[in-house]
């Protein structure tokens, strides 16, 4: 049984007050994406600029089958710490990276050429990032349900 737990994320509660204190303004202050809009506008960039998505990061604590974790490490550019678990055949990993790193990893691992296990792991990460307030970063991608009850995340 695989498990994905959000270990750390940037928060509006910490980011927005800091931006207000330094700049005196914030684009909006409701979501993490609003904070990214503010960072983008300060640099004269747009929200879709990849460099903006490199400023904030996430970490996830994951437990999955040994080969799923190994495949994740081979196919992504996420920072990681791998460790043994009490359950035979399962490995733990802390996966960390910028929002841009995770967007790339999710697109890579939720592709049609991926097996069900790796796609399921990254489907969970995708859903947790969306729940954390990141929805628009997926606008250039589409979600398709597959016959194994996972979904693909593809470029439009």
**Fraction of helical residues:** 25-40%
Give helix and strand order, one letter per element, not per position.
EHHEHEEHHEE
Which class do the helix and strand fractions yield? alpha+beta
Q: Write down the overall geometry.
A: globular
Terminal residue distance: 32 Å
The Cα radius of gyration reads 17 Å
Number of helices: 5
* Largest sheet features: 4 strands, antiparallel
Low-confidence stretches: none
Name the quaternary structure: single chain
Strand order of the largest sheet: 1-2-4-3
Brief overview:
The chain has 156 residues and is α+β, with helices and mostly antiparallel strands.
What does this structure look like?
The protein has five helices and six strands; from the N terminus they run βααβαββααββ. The chain is α+β, with helices and mostly antiparallel strands and 156 residues long. The strands form two sheets. It has a four-stranded antiparallel β-sheet. The protein has a two-stranded antiparallel ribbon with strand order 5-6. A hairpin with a 5-residue loop joins strand 5 (141-145) and strand 6. 29% of the residues are buried.
């Amino acid at each position: 049984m695989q498990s994905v737990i959000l270990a750390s994320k940037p928060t509006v509660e910490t980011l927005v007050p800091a931006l207000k204190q330094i700049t005196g303004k914030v684009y909006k202050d409701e979501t993490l994406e609003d904070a990214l809009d503010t960072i983008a506008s300060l640099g004269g960039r747009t929200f879709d600029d990849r460099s903006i998505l490199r400023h904030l990061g996430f970490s996830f604590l994951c437990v999955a089958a040994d080969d799923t974790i190994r495949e994740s490490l081979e196919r992504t550019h996420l920072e990681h710490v791998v460790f043994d678990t009490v359950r035979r055949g399962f490995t733990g990993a802390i996966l960390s990276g910028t929002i841009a790193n995770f967007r790339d990893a999710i697109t890579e691992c939720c592709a049609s050429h991926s097996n069900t296990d790796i796609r399921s792991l990254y489907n969970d990460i995708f859903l947790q990032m969306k729940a954390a307030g990141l929805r628009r970063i997926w606008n250039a991608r589409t979600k398709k349900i597959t016959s194994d009850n996972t979904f693909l995340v593809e470029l439009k």
